[in-house]
Design brief:
32% of the residues lie in helices and 24% in strands. By secondary structure, the protein is α/β, with parallel strands linked by helices. It has a single domain (2-234), classed as Rossmann fold (3-Layer(aba) Sandwich). It is globular and about 45 Å long.
Length: 241
């Protein structure tokens, strides 16, 4: 555990030093990006983890530490679904989700770093998985189809969004009528979770930010060792006079 914690500390430090240039992101959106936030609704936003830290995502101890299979068993994925792995990295969850949705289903794997998507493609090809669509998103738009996504899974990534309002608006639009946005975030309330405070969120903060963007809590799963698991639906009354 100590060795893992030291590695995590190094990678998070690396993430601060190696940021994805906004000029590259601007090219993907066809213009200048709006300014990113440093603080949102009282929470300081963390920097995106750089692709050089990708090996940590597929570390040997991840299942033991986070009970990833337990999370997936409670996610509600069914064959034939369209599922998004938001901030997919090198595809740790994308590959598992692809097997759960089956040949008739689809996984949209979104990341803002093309290098991460290259790693994902390599891993998918090695396992002969063909129902994943790697998608290069931007800081303000994940490039999801409107009204088509059954589940959007955000594992320890939402707290790094530099433009949370833009991203939540686009994700909300992409949800199918009964679609769910599922957030996993390291528990700020638990000091024993060995993650830097900037990369943790409390339930109260998550709920505050989702409600401010037209999403309401549908349910939650509280049995994971390190993370909150919170399910959100569109709030159809949002913005109504």
């Amino acid at each position: 555990m100590y060795r893992c914690f030291r590695l995590l500390t190094f990678l998070l430090t690396l993430a601060i030093c190696l940021q994805l240039p906004q000029t590259v992101q601007a090219q993907k959106t066809g213009g200048e990006l709006p300014p990113g936030r440093k603080i949102y609704l009282g929470r300081r936003i963390a920097q995106t983890m750089h692709y050089l830290g990708a090996p940590w995502l597929i570390r040997d101890g991840r299942e033991r530490e986070e009970r990833c299979s337990q999370m997936l068993a409670n996610l509600g994925v069914k064959p034939g679904m369209t599922v998004c792995d938001m901030g997919c990295g090198n595809g740790y969850y994308s590959l598992k989700l692809a097997k759960l949705v089956g040949a008739q289903g689809k996984v949209i794997a979104v990341d803002i770093q093309p290098e991460m998507l290259t790693f994902l493609r390599q891993r998918a090809a090695k396992e002969k998985i063909t129902n994943i669509t790697p998608t290069l998103g931007s800081l303000i738009d994940p490039q999801l189809p409107p009204g088509k996504v059954d589940i959007i899974l955000c594992v320890d990534v939402y707290h790094e969004f530099s433009h949370p309002e833009h991203m939540l608006r686009e994700m909300r639009k992409s949800l199918a009528p009964n679609g769910l946005l599922v957030l996993l975030e390291y528990r700020e309330e638990d000091p024993t979770v060995p993650i830097k405070p900037l990369h943790k969120m409390s339930k109260n903060q998550v709920n505050k930010e989702m409600a401010a963007n037209g999403l309401k809590l549908a349910k939650q799963y509280d049995e994971l060792p390190w993370q909150h698991m919170m399910f959100y639906r569109r709030d159809e009354t949002f913005g109504a006079k």
